[in-house]
Amino acid sequence: MSRVKLENLKKHYGNVKAVDGIDLQVENGSFVVLLGPSGCGKTTTLRCIAGLEIPTEGKIYFDERDVTGLSPSERNVGMVFQFYALYPHMSVLENITFPLRACRVPPRKIEEKVKEVVQIFQLKNLLKYKASILPPGDQQRVALARAVVREPNVLLLDEPLSALDEKFREEMRSELGKLQKRIGITTVYVTHDQREAMALGDVIVVMRDGLILQTGSPQELYEHPNSVFVGNFLGTPGMNFVECVYEENSLVLKGTDYRLKLHRPDLIDVLKDYQSREFIMGIRPEYVHIDGEAVNGGLLLEVIAIEPAGRYRLVDFLVGEKIFRVRTDWGLSLVAGQKVWARVREDKVCIFDRDNGMAIVS
Ligand SMILES: Nc1ncnc2c1ncn2[C@@H]1O[C@H](COP(=O)(O)OP(=O)(O)OP(=O)(O)O)[C@@H](O)[C@H]1O
Ligand SMILES: [Mg+2]
């Protein structure tokens, strides 16, 4: 097991800067998720860690060892990709033992290791079946077992659950999380699904355009996004945004006469420099409260649409020209077209620069 360190990692394909200078440390035994939209460089980063791509620039370390020039086998990594390539004509047992036999591990040792992974992945009843006849979830478990049986330094997973249907994906996700904790293997996991990232990651690395935008725990990223992009990308739905100006210790939301009186010295202090300049306020859907009656300092909003979401509803409101999505319980009866009072939780307000989308206070 190793700590993984990337130093100014770049991978360019001609003019395409797939990865354009990232620094990252993955602590020994931790579960790190690379998250970002399609094409942001997640797979390329993973393939560089695996040794399947030679970086254009930069260094990769496993603990203190510089592995940048080493082949995949010299790095001893375990990999599982979306389209897990099991040997379809081989039995589950043969699939799992194959990498060990290829490395000429003595038979007795093979038996020992197989016993261990069979128990971890609960494969005992599947061992004799051909891989190709198993349902996708079982195949994925076999692929994971095969990846960890060699006791790799690092486990690299690229969207390993995306071929599964939703219900099963959730089950596998929770199983995978528990498993990683139990065997304690350093894991780098790639996904574009923020829910998966939030559920699995000790640390989430949000990537965009070949760069790291923000790194932190799921909670840090959720509560303190460093940019409009991260605020929007994380959360179901993402953060609400509206343009604002600052006047007399209040936020005035564009297109409304709503004035959110501020009591937060951190906001007031920073916003002094933004007098009469527009910026963006962000607020999560659960931090807008809906009231039955008029309230002091409230905001009168029109209900546009209501979407049931289990224990909650998502209610769309028109705020100036923007739609705000608000998560609220079923207490109050609401219908489209109705006007209701709302309050923004001042302690949860984030402020972003309008020009570059980066956080000013978050
Ligand atoms: N072998 C290659 N040759 C040329 N361009 C490539 C190659 N591999 C990746 N790219 C480009 O590099 C960029 C990053 O690709 P990458 O596959 O790392 O993205 P990703 O974040 O994994 O996306 P996805 O979520 O769609 O899998 C993309 O623009 C892609 O087209
Ligand atoms: Mg990819």
Describe the structure.
The protein is α+β, with helices and mostly antiparallel strands and 362 residues long. Helix 3 packs parallel to helix 5. The chain has two domains: 230 residues, Rossmann fold, CATH 3.40.50.300; 122 residues, OB fold (Dihydrolipoamide Acetyltransferase, E2P) (Beta Barrel), CATH 2.40.50. Strands 6-7-8-3-9-10 form a six-stranded mixed sheet, sandwiched between helices. The protein has a six-stranded antiparallel sheet with strand order 13-12-11-14-20-21. The protein contains ten helices and 21 strands. The radius of gyration is 25 Å and the shape is elongated. Helix content is 26%, strand content 34%. The structure holds adenosine-5'-triphosphate (ATP) and magnesium ion. The site of adenosine-5'-triphosphate has 12 residues, from strand 2 and helix 1.
Features:
single chain, 362 residues, alpha+beta, Rossmann fold, OB fold (Dihydrolipoamide Acetyltransferase, E2P), 2 domains, six-stranded mixed β-sheet, elongated, binds adenosine-5'-triphosphate, binds magnesium ion
Quick gist of this model?
The protein has helices at residues 42-50, 72-75, 92-102, 107-120, 136-148, 166-183, 194-200, 218-223, 228-233, 265-271; strands at 4-13, 16-26, 31-35, 57-62, 65-66, 77-81, 154-158, 187-191, 203-208, 211-216, 240-247, 250-253, 259-261, 279-283, 288-291, 299-309, 312-319, 322-328, 339-344, 350-352, 359-361. With 362 residues, the chain is of the alpha+beta class.
